[in-house]
């Protein structure tokens, strides 16, 4: 009895975090494709998702949709023009930091990789001239057939700064560069040994850049840059793929708010388990001074489909709390359920929602909204994220 009273007393003083999703809305897509890679605009009023119709990810049935969350019936597909009857094979949308009317997006058009600045408000309002081509700004004038591996956005003095990595087919090199103010293009690392993929800036506080590349034996390793603009040579390498521990990294992230602590999280699994669709979640605390990781969660569902395109949306940090959201595959009944890992409390939390059969998760910049894609084709949910 005394022990029970102590447990209840401690629970009253230190109540455990509870996470709910309220006001869940379902957004349906009638084309029959699968919905992936949800992404909120910075103000949380718009949502971008990608629809993949099946077959190979490189086929021309990869679409990007913009949804007005104040009117979820107002959603529109990104095309070359409003009159176009063909889909624009596009993906990798990232929202502008400096200009709330714009986003950036990659596309394949006439068998060439393109890069566009997109006025998504004009698109939703069905106004013309919503796409501005920036292909030459990234690849340079006169190049042909280059391929962009990845890009990331940061902001300086009210302007977007684009960090990018691409394959220069003329030089036969992977190049890393910076586009500033939409005019100045600098290649700062020439002839990379391998491309940078899953390039991401945590964009709050210090804005560290994290990315993945493959080493000389084609094994993935994580790179963190403290100053990706002015000091690209200052890099930290973390490679879970070692001689005695052969783990493959599929996805990495830094916590968004780094005011107090910096954490690196990543999804990985053993090389011999690479065909399994579940991974483990690992945490590295203070990665600029420590490369030792610990496994904190098992059975995290992974959507990869043998391509980098579908990665980077399988686990997400909350923008305020040290909480990581992910889809857990419950082996006993093969359900796919939303979970969260509280880093400070070192425990898993079942998120209170009746939704099952989900994959890919996004959280708005203010932490108040969450989007979940369904395993069943054409399904998407958006709700209010409540942490008590």
Question: What would you note in describing this structure?
Answer:
This protein has 388 residues and is mostly beta strands. The chain folds into two domains: 198 residues, Methylamine Dehydrogenase, Chain H, CATH 2.130.10.120; 90 residues, no CATH class. 6% of the residues lie in helices and 50% in strands. The chain is built from three helices and 28 strands. A four-stranded antiparallel β-sheet has the order 1-28-27-26, with no helix packed on it. A four-stranded antiparallel β-sheet has the order 2-3-4-5. The chain has a four-stranded antiparallel β-sheet with strand order 6-7-8-9. Strand 10 and strand 11 form a beta hairpin. The radius of gyration is 21 Å and the shape is globular.
Topology overview:
Blueprint: H1 2-13, E1 19-28, E2 34-40, E3 46-52, E4 62-68, E5 75-77, E6 89-95, E7 102-109, E8 112-119, H2 120-124, E9 131-133, H3 135-139, E10 147-156, E11 159-168, E12 173-180, E13 184-192, E14 197-201, E15 209-214, E16 220-225, E17 235-238, E18 247-254, E19 263-270, E20 278-285, E21 294-301, E22 315-317, E23 323-330, E24 335-342, E25 347-350, E26 358-363, E27 369-374, E28 379-387
Antiparallel strand pairs: 1-28, 2-3, 3-4, 4-5, 6-7, 7-8, 8-9, 10-11, 11-12, 12-13, 14-15, 15-16, 16-17, 18-19, 19-20, 20-21, 22-23, 23-24, 24-25, 26-27, 27-28
């Amino acid at each position: 009895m005394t022990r029970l009273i102590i447990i209840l007393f401690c629970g009253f003083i230190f109540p455990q975090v509870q996470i709910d999703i309220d006001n869940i809305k379902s957004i349906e897509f009638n084309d029959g494709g699968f919905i992936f890679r949800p992404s909120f605009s910075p103000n949380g009023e718009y949502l971008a998702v990608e629809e993949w119709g099946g077959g190979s990810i490189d086929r021309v049935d990869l679409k990007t949709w913009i949804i007005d969350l104040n009117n979820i019936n107002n959603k529109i597909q990104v095309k070359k023009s409003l009159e176009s009857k063909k889909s624009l094979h596009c993906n990798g949308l990232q929202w502008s930091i400096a200009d709330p009317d714009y986003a950036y997006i990659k596309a394949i058009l006439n068998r060439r990789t393109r890069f566009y600045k997109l006025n998504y408000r004009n698109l939703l309002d069905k106004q013309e001239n919503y796409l501005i081509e920036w292909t030459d700004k990234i690849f340079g004038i006169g190049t042909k057939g280059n391929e962009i591996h990845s890009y990331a956005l940061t902001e300086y003095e009210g302007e977007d700064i684009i960090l990018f990595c691409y394959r220069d087919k003329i030089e036969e090199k992977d190049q890393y560069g910076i586009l500033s103010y939409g005019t100045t293009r600098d290649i700062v690392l020439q002839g990379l040994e391998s491309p940078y993929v899953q390039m991401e800036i945590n964009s709050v506080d210090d804005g560290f850049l994290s990315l993945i590349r493959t080493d000389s034996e084609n094994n993935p390793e994580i790179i963190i840059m403290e100053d990706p603009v002015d000091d690209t040579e200052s890099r930290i390498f973390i490679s879970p793929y070692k001689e005695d521990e052969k783990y493959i990294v599929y996805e990495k992230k830094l916590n968004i708010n780094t005011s107090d602590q910096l954490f690196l999280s990543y999804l990985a699994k053993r090389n011999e388990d690479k065909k399994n669709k579940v991974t483990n979640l690992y945490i590295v605390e203070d990665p600029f001074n420590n490369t030792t990781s610990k496994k904190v969660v098992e059975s995290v569902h992974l959507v990869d489909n043998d391509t980098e395109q579908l990665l980077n949306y399988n686990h997400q940090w909350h923008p305020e709390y040290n909480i990581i959201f992910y889809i857990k595959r419950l082996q006993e009944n093969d359900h796919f359920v939303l979970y969260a890992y509280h880093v400070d409390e070192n425990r898993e939390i079942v998120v209170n929602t009746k939704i099952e059969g989900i994959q890919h998760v996004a959280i708005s910049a203010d932490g108040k909204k969450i989007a979940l894609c369904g395993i069943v084709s054409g399904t998407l949910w958006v709700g209010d994220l409540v942490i008590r």
